[in-house]
Amino acid sequence: MKKLTLVFAALICAVSVFAAGGKQDSNTVAIGAVFPLSGQVAFYGTESRDGALLAIDEINAAGGLLGKQLVLISEDDEGDSAKSVNAFTKLTTRDKVSFILGSSTSGATQAMTALAQQGKVILISPSATNIAITRAGDYIFRACFIDPFQGVVGADFAYNTLKSRRAAVLYDAGADYNTGLAETFKEQFKKNGGQIAADEAYQTGDVDFNAQVTRIRAANPDVVYLPNYYNDVALQAKQLRAQGVSCAFLGGDGWDGLVDLIEDAGDEVLNGYWSAGFASDTTDPRGQVFVKAYQAKFNKPASQFAALGYDSMMLVADGIKAAGTFDTAAVKDAMAKINGPYVTGSIRFDQNRDPIKGATILEIVRKDGKLVNTYKTTVNPR
What we know:
It is built from 11 helices and 15 strands. The protein is α/β, with parallel strands linked by helices and 382 residues long. The strands form 3 sheets. The protein has a 7-stranded mixed sheet, with helices on both faces. It has a 5-stranded parallel sheet with strand order 2-1-3-4-5, with helices on both faces.
């Protein structure tokens, strides 16, 4: 009897918690967000969340969506796939959200895609670039370009702009993002007529790259492609320069945040270039308005992750407006037809709900005593 009483009490408690979590004001609609707000890639997640918050502020100030105000419920996945699933489950069962922004990294995002498709929850990632993300179904979108495009952009920039002919590659073999960029870069660089002089890998969590660097130095490359996250790149740049590798470094959008690692990244990252989804020194009027508003709200410069978080929220909002309803089946169809200007450029979706848009190449330079990212060029899809 005691056991039955305890079970019954537990069920009542669970139902009460569920009901409290699912209860929403009739005048508001909750939007979910799953981002790494702590951990090694917290910069990506906090920036995207803040960009989404700015978008929601602007939407609400203009009257909201279909007569309702929006609220953002953010969950921290720490860049971990299991935690992203837990966050998704909490948002959809307790908070009853039907629209989720996230995650920042490909692995954490991919862990949620099948659940989103099955539950008819619209999931849009600002920055998950792995090609498989949107293949899970028609409720899955992204605001960024995909890994193959970044790899091709990097190879073309290295060969055509930097005039490189011998490339070395150093990448994390345990991460889908890193391996995806590395493979497409190598394929395109060779197709362009270049040679992969050194092909080196490491495992997630490694901090000593000197063995790989020694082999790279011996290969005498004229560019080193580092398709890794910014915290790894900071260490790799130091170790490469320390061994006398003086050529250009090149990477993908995982470099965002690199210039802020003052204790780890110094002049070693100069002569470094990376493909990004946005340049804070943009001359586009829409982008300039966003940069100014973001600086005013958060007292910090707008990164590409902030811009992509902002655009992700605006893409969902425009889909809801076009559909005239919050029903996700109608909204995902409306989103698939979007074709217009956004902060990160003109966006339209292909058949896989991947945006067709250009990539910005940024160069790291020293300006007024600080390392900054400056616009170099734009590479558009072929």
